[in-house]
Amino acid sequence: MGIFNKKKADNQERSLIHRLRTYRLFRTLLIGFIVIALFNMLFSSLFYTPKMLELSEERSRIEYKNKVLLTKIRSSQNQIDQIRQRDNNVYRPLFSSDTFYIEGIHSPYAEQKYAWMKDLSNRDMLHTTWLQMDQLARSLYLSSKSLDELQKLSREKENFSTSIPAIWPIDRSRLRGGIGAFGYRIHPILKYRKMHQGVDLGGKIGDPVYTTGDGIIETVVLSRARTSYGTQIVVNHGFGYKTRYAHLDKVFVEQGDTVSRGELIAEMGNTGISTAPHLHYEVIYKGSVVNPINYFDKDMSTEAYKSLMGQIQEENYEGE
Ligand SMILES: [Zn+2]
């Protein structure tokens, strides 16, 4: 073997050693990598990785918060139900009003509304909460509408109580003689049975005449003629009520004026068909005359009513 051949063999050996080293290094790295991967797989199936642990805790927190939210929603629903209960059984009967209801208010929304959550992992949890929330919203809406209506009713009731005729149209202390009765009687001048549409309250010319409830002056007739009611006023109180004040002397209001209960509107007179100074007073409800005696004092006791009835006489002062 020559020197040349020996050199060649050395080179081949070095190259082989080098390749072997590289191969070993690769093998070590590969084994290392596989071992790490195996460990990773093993650990991640047995224990959570920090990231997974975080996610899991997050999920538990959300579930807990959702539970708290549901409890709150249910408690609010409970309160709303109690308000409804009082509304229907206490407040509404006060105003003789029926239960307030909106047709279909309690039917749940179409499932379409919740379609957006169908792919979410916590869909069931969300769906339950959402349904409860929507139900609460509907109940709230119903209750608020009902309360609006109650408020309106109470305002009307307030107006109603001051509008209906409920006092004497003259000072009772100034009443002279009896009270000319309401109803059929023999006409004092025409001498045949005729309906007396109101009551006659005797007094003196110039005695104050008051409106018996809040209202608007509907008619003022100024007449000195010896016919019919003579000078008269009709007040419209709303709620179906009107009052008429006839045979007046002076009048202090005009058509369209707003008047309050107890307001001085005229003075007693002897105009129209009348035999002596008096006030002819009518209460008209929905177009028909009713007995004004029942509207003199809405809080009248039985005793006071009896004594009032004792003052009523068949004789009247006039023909209308
Ligand atoms: Zn009369």
Ligand identities:
zinc ion
Largest sheet: 11 strands, mixed
- Secondary-structure element order, as H and E? HHHEEEEEEEEEEEEHE
Q: Which percent range fits the helix content? A: 40-55%
State the CATH class of the largest domain.
Answer: Mainly Beta
- The count of β-strands is 13
Radius of gyration: 48 Å
- CATH level-4 homologous superfamily of the largest domain: Glucose Permease (Domain IIA)
**Secondary-structure class:** alpha+beta
Count of domain modules: 2
Would you give an account of this structure?
This protein has 320 residues and is α+β, with helices and mostly antiparallel strands. The protein has 2 domains: 50-163; 172-313, Glucose Permease (Domain IIA). The chain is built from 4 helices and 13 strands. The protein has helices at residues 3-46, 50-94, 123-163, 302-311; strands at 179-180, 183-186, 193-196, 199-202, 208-210, 215-221, 231-238, 241-251, 258-259, 264-268, 278-285, 288-290, 312-313. The strands form 2 sheets. Strands 1, 4, 5, 6, 7, 8, 9, 10, 11, 12 and 13 form an 11-stranded mixed β-sheet that branches. A hairpin with a 2-residue loop joins strand 7 (231-238) and strand 8. The longest helix is centred in the N-terminal third of the chain and has 45 residues, at 50-94. It starts with a helix and ends in a 7-residue tail after the last strand. The structure holds zinc ion (ZN). Residues 180, 196, 198, 200, 280, 316, 318 line the site of zinc ion. Residues 180, 196, 198, 200, 280, 316, 318 line the site of zinc ion (ZN).
